[in-house]
Amino acid sequence: MLKFIARRLGIMILTAFVLTFVVFFLTNLPPNLEKLARSEGSVRMTDEAVAQWIIDNGHGGSVLGRYGQWLGVAPGWQNVDEKGVARGRCFAAGTDPTVAPTHCGVLQGNWGYSTFFRGPVLQNLGEKLAATGILMLWVMIVMVPSALIIGVVAGMREGSRTDRVLSTFSIATTATPEYVSGVILVALLASPVTGLSPILAKWGWIDGKILFQGAATAGNITFWSFALPVLTIALYGIGYIARMTRASMTEVMTAQYIRTARLKGVGFREVVMRHALRNALIAPFTVIMLQFPWLLNGVVIVETLFNYKGFGWTLVQAAGNNDINLLLGCSVVAVFVVLVTQLISDIGYVFLNPRIRLS
Amino acid sequence: MDDNLSYLAILGRIIAQFLPVWIALIATFAVSITYKRRLGLYGKLFDSPVGMIGFAIVMFWVFTALMADQIITFDPYAQFSGMKNKPLGTVLAKAADGDYSHFLLGGDHLARDVFSRMVMGARSVLSIAPAATMFAFMVGITLGVPAGYIGGRLDTGLSFLANLVLAFPVILLFYLLVTPEIVNHKMMFFSAFLSPEAELACKAKDSVTAGTLACFGLSIPTMMAATLFIFPIIFLSVLLNARFFTNPMRRNLYVGGVLVIGLWAYSGLAFNADPLGVWSMEPNLLNVFVSVVFVNAPTVFRIVRGIVMDLKSRDYVAAGQTRGEGSWYIMLWEILPNARGPLIVDFCLRIGYTTILLGTLGFFGLGVAPDSPDWGSTIDDGRKTLNMFPHAAVVPALALMSLVLGLNLLADGLREESLRD
Amino acid sequence: MTDTAKDSGWDPSQPILEIDHLSISFFTRLREIPAVMDFSCKVMAGEAMGLVGESGCGKSTVALAVMRELGKTGKIVAGTIKFKGRDLTHMGQDELQTIRGSEIAMIYQEPMASLNPAMKIGAQLAEVPMIHSGMSKDDAWKLARQIVAYVRLPDPDRIINAYPHQLSGGQQQRIVIAMALMAKPALLILDEPTTALDVTVEAGIVDLVKDLGEKYGTSMLFISHNLGLVMDVCNRICVMYSGEAVETGNVVQVFDKMRHPYTQALFRSIPLPGADKNARPLISIPGNFPLPHERPSGCNFGPRCDYFQKGRCDAADIPMDTVPVDDRHATRCLRWQEIDWDAPPAKREVKVKAPVGRVVLKMEDLKKYYAISSGAFGGGAKKVVKANETLSFEAREGETLAIVGESGCGKSTFAKVLMGLETATSGSIMLFDENVQSTPIQKRNVDTVSSVQMVFQNPFDTLNPSMTVGRQIIRALEIFKHGKSDADRQARMLELLDLVKLPRAFADRMPRQLSGGQKQRVGIARAFAGGAKVVVADEPVSALDVSVQAAVTDLLMDIQRENRTTLLFISHDLSIVRYLSDRVMVMYLGHVVEMGTTDQVFSPPYHPYTEALLSAVPIADTKVIRKRIVLDGDIPSAVNPPPGCPFQTRCRWKSQVTPAGLCDREMPPVQVLEGGHQIKCHLSAEVFASMEPVIKIAAE
Predict the structure, then answer these.
(1) Residue B7 has pLDDT above 70, yes or no
(2) Is residue B99 part of a domain?
């Protein structure tokens, strides 16, 4: 077991290195650097000046070397510009390079300076992640139980009316990406001109013009502002997980050991609760965990749509504003989240399944 | 005549506008149901209500895409003064002769006809999604079948690569691959790994030295296209060679044909260097296409690999081995045809997923022209005025949703029917 | 509740189960498919009723109907099922629940699938008394432990805390039986309980089942396709054909004095001791089993029956007719009184045994080891599985060599090595004077490949489901470089279809349109496409129904005789081996434990394993007296073979070996007895000489 986890961890770390390198490579291509030079320096720089700026600011040299510095396994760059000011990766311009640490990369906790936030990446990213964390927490609270219940109820009596209604609902939600459901939900519930809000306002049931808020801010979370973003992300996942659960449940319900249980005289309730449920939930568990990369997607869309300043919003801003360090930071977080959930999914699968655990 | 239309009238007019689609749909269904017993799995689809509904929705959009020119009421790119953000069924303000009288589904923030843009959007989505999915399947199959059948190091390596791509959050990947800087940037193979200054120097030099190997460059999408587009050619060549190597004459004819046509198309699509100029792809489109294939292929790879690992223990595979068949014949002719059921189902689902991905790209304004009528970017345009004029975003949103729903239902119907016997 | 139900004033002299004119249909979207028609039978207290028939005859459906477990599509359309006088067909779900598991219990074919993989054995067992008699959890677990001990499982304390996958197949089946016994049911339904198990393991289960019938007086409904097994377990039998009971009665009477043509045909098609492929060949039943929606009018067996009379047998449905004098014996035949039941079968041409020619295949000291990594998660110490150990034998032209053994004995590995799908670890394989042991199939030339071919076990798996039959044969011809043009190969393909007695129209069929036996014939045609000289037949008929087995076996024999092919017949079924083979090789855990001519192997002296194997095979003949030797435990895993002699853990002769403990330490030598009969055993010649035959045919 330990060996298994160690192996998985090894592969995970390798994957993390490869992925961060790819991101580093793609974000540090010459055109990006050129753009950075012109936005940080001056728009009217000559080509030569741009090249000089790139070298002066430590973006020269081979990609591998720069990646090593960013990671913190290679010593940070140092040089002296034409004005005689000492510049380096690990200290502010003009301070004494000798007292500064030699290595300062991601591993040392130095995630660089964000040109978009005008501040350190790590701190800003942390705040935004916290905001997203709250969003995700609510998404999970809404999504997982409802999806599992829908799946189990639909799957325990395959072909029944309940099954058909719930299955149709699940298919419909998986066909509705976040940018579609978000738009529809806003139009229905948060628009002063269409959907429910004008009717409710006319009847005097709501005070303002709209029922739900069409935007959310991290500092001011209320049910009315948070329901739509949470629902938007959760809907897609609900359908997907519910379908997986249903498939797994129907398969289990037709298994021979369920027949054995029934023919032992076990009642339907007990058959479902004691015999079917555990076996049926093994597969969806993996799915829920592997759902995280997609949830990350949903977060980006929803935060953009509802203007919620979290991790997804930050990613879009970083990419849109050529903020290399911030984008790299976002990638590290994203890759980390994905890999950790994969690991949990693998280990959890083994633990849930005695057949694998004990062999 | 000069009044704005009621909702009922709008509905009636839209239905009338889709007339060619209805005719085509009815014809398809009439023919298919008549001959359904002779049409294999496709025919059996008409035994399943769910499958039929799905098929109807999908075919509705396919026919819409094909006959979009007949259906649209206005030029989807044209702006009409006085029609900005107008609600559904508004009379066209300054109608010229021969113009359609109303904006059936209103106008958007640039005073364009929402209905016509929605119809044209179907064409732009359906011209990419199925083809991109097809390519993803070619890549996934060409790599997944040997990974599953041969296993060992090959499997470990390919699976690692696939998981690598799958661990990338899709949006991040799109942002990295589809930004204009990367698209237009010709990466200098040998200098890029050295330093940016070397590359900039390459660029600055005169064209004579820029042509040397050190400064030879390709843009990243072109490189990816060059890699991904080669797979269908490999796939078909190997497929035919495995089957016909016992008859060299025929083999040379078939494989030669595939190679000539394939490489011709390849030169045009991947490098935009078709000598005859028949095959070509707009850089923007190529970019989107390649990204979508790249994101989908690993999942297909995993599915194919799983099925092959299951099928390879069958006796007919062993029978092939004991007759001394080559591995490729067994993989492509003994195993692959028997994996077709789940693959067809997944193909339908995956077109839907690709549609969603294309929408996501459009939603973030990546890789599409700013005035493109595709559904993703129209939703993005519309959401800016979502609070006051929701129709501009809701119309394409519903269109996209219905297409994906149709594909999902179709896949469900196919799965149900293929499991039935 | 259950106690009152159990003592509901039911008179024990009345039948426990009485099925009366039962008809069951399955309803699909297209049509109603009748599965069982007009089925009647009675099971008295303490009686064991055997339900016999080929696959698709409806025997399992009857069992499930008794449990009222026909799924969504199945419905009882007529008739009644009375259990202790109460009609089950109209019973509500609640009442059924109290009966299921407590009064009627069921045992299934696939023990692994019948146990919940995520629940401990103890919990699954304890559940039964907890539901039915409200027993406390502790008491229920205690009872579970007792019953586990009763079904003769070693170390019950460990077993009740284990999960199903930690047990072997035989142990799992014992658990399923234990589960059925937890509530001491009045009626036990066993649906092919031993089909998935090895013969020697099966013998133990059969013993247990018989014992429990005697001890508790439990009535049983025993479903099987194996007539021999039914004879071992049951007192009464009901033969089913195509949804109908065709003959029912006392086992001995039905076996010795059958009064239905189908029963007779069935007995003539199974290899009993005394049958011989040349002198007394098996008689297969002509034609095919009718599909449920294509049954003929009148007698269902009519079209395949030797005694069929047009206008009479196909006129109307035929009722059951009682055979007087006999013990509740009845038959569904109009002509049973007219037929001369003692007439010998029509004389068939006696085939001359082909002379055996030169040696074509010679293996010497063949070894095949696999390195596997232990542990589920990769890594861990590498272990070596010795799949084949020092295998030496030779096979001659025109000879049939049977390779007998149970699961894990290494017979499939041996086939793979011979075919070149795997290369041997050491030793040599000489094929027509050519050394091929280290040549994988890709490197063998076309001639070698085409001359060694294989017939596979599973008919549903042997043909590619998405290619026409003709195409698959033609592909083999293409690969074997047969014929110059497509037309040549097409012609040859049609000839091959003729050879295996299939209509030429089958060339364009897809495999799913063929029955199991037909598919197997195509497999044979494909194997012989390149004029194979050595054919490895890996259990070619074990998945087929009895009546089809005979036909396919005979076909294989005929082609062999004509082509003078060497046939390596891999099987676990000793009856068929005795019937068709010239020489036999018995394998156990990768070792050849005994080898000799068929007569030598089937008569003493035996290797102790062969002896047990012979005793374990049920024989459907009342005149055969078998010595019961039931082996303890299961076949050890090939990954972890016991030290010394591989069979020592289960051997009943072990105590007779001097010095004691030799078997635990040393691999026995191969002893060559008279006539080249080889036995790998430590036993002395005197002990061998004292062995008695396992099977005796009683004098009539």
Answers:
(1) yes
(2) yes
Statement to judge: residues B293 and B325 lie in one domain: yes
Mean pLDDT score of chain B? 83
Residues B112, B162: one domain?
no
Q: Which residues of A fall within a CB distance of 8 Å from C100?
A: 262-265
Residues B138, B105 within the same domain = no
Asked whether residue B170 falls in the same domain as residue B308, the answer is yes
Q: Please list the residues that pair with C537 across neighbouring strands.
A: C455, C569
Inter-chain contact A186–B167, Cβ cutoff 8 Å?
Answer: no
- Within chain B, what is the greatest distance between any pair of CA atoms? 80
Partner residue opposite B175 with nearest CB, options A62, A294, A319: A319
Taking 80 as the threshold, does the pLDDT of residue A1 lie above it? no
User: Are C521 and C549 contacting, i.e. CB atoms less than 8 angstroms apart?
Assistant: no
Whether B363 maps to a domain, the answer reads: no
Q: What is the pLDDT of residues B278-329, one digit of tens each?
A: 777 777 788 888 889 998 999 999 999 999 988 888 888 988 888 888 888 9
Domain carrying residue B112? 7-121+380-418
What residues in B contact A215, CB-CB < 8 Å?
none
Percent above pLDDT 90 for chain B: 25
All residues of chain B having their beta carbon less than 8 Å from the beta carbon of residue A18 are 164
Give the residue ranges of DSSP H helices in C102-150.
111-114, 121-132, 137-150
- C449 and chain B: CB distance < 8 Å anywhere? yes
Yes or no, beta carbons of C478 and B314 under 8 Å apart: no
CA distance B323 to chain C (A): 6
CA distance A208 to chain B (A): 14
What pLDDT score does B141 carry?
A: 93
Is the residue at B149 inside a domain? yes
- How many beta-carbon pairs under 8 angstroms link A with C? 92
Tell me which of B47, B159, B323 to substitute to probe the interface with C (most C C-beta atoms closer than 10 Å): B323
> Cβ of B200 and A51 within 8 Å?
yes
pLDDT confidence band for C214 (50 / 70 / 90) = confident
**Complex ipTM:** 0.86
Q: Do A61 and B179 touch (CB under 8 A)?
A: no
Q: Among B304, B330, B347, identify where a domain stops.
A: B347
Q: Are B87 and B391 in contact (CB under 8 A)?
A: yes
Amino acid A223: pLDDT = 79
Which pLDDT belongs to residue A165? 92
> Cβ distance C34 to C243 under 8 Å?
yes
Question: What is the Cα–Cα distance from B102 to B2, expressed in whole angstroms?
Answer: 9
Structure tokens at A160: 């029944």
Q: Is A188 exposed, middle or buried (0-12, 13-18, 19+ CB in 10 A)?
A: middle
Quick check: A171 contacting B, CB < 8 Å?
yes
Kindly state the tokens that stand for B118. Answer: 């929605």
C421/B319 CB distance under 8 A = no
Q: Does any domain span residue B60?
A: yes
Across the interface, whether the CB atoms of C119 and A274 are under 8 A apart is answered yes
Residue C362 CA to residue C560 CA, distance in Å, equals 19
Q: Do the chains contact at B356 and A177, CB–CB below 8 Å?
A: yes
Q: Name the DSSP letter for residue B336.
A: G
Q: Which of A246-260, A283-297, B66-80 has the lowest mean pLDDT?
A: A283-297
Name the domain boundary from B327, B347, B367.
Answer: B347
Q: Name the 3-class secondary structure at A37.
A: helix
Residues B38 and B166 occupy one common structural domain: no
> Are B195 and B140 part of one and the same domain?
yes
B333 with B403, same domain: the answer is no
d(CA A102, CA B285): 46
Sign of the alpha-carbon torsion through C678, C682, C688, C691 = negative
Residue A161 contacts C where some CB pair is shorter than 8 Å: no
pLDDT attached to residue B147? 92
- pLDDT value, residue C376: 42
Q: Do A183 and B160 touch (CB under 8 A)?
A: no
B305 plus B162 within the same structural domain:
yes
Structural domains in chain B (count): 2
Averaged confidence pLDDT in chain C: 84
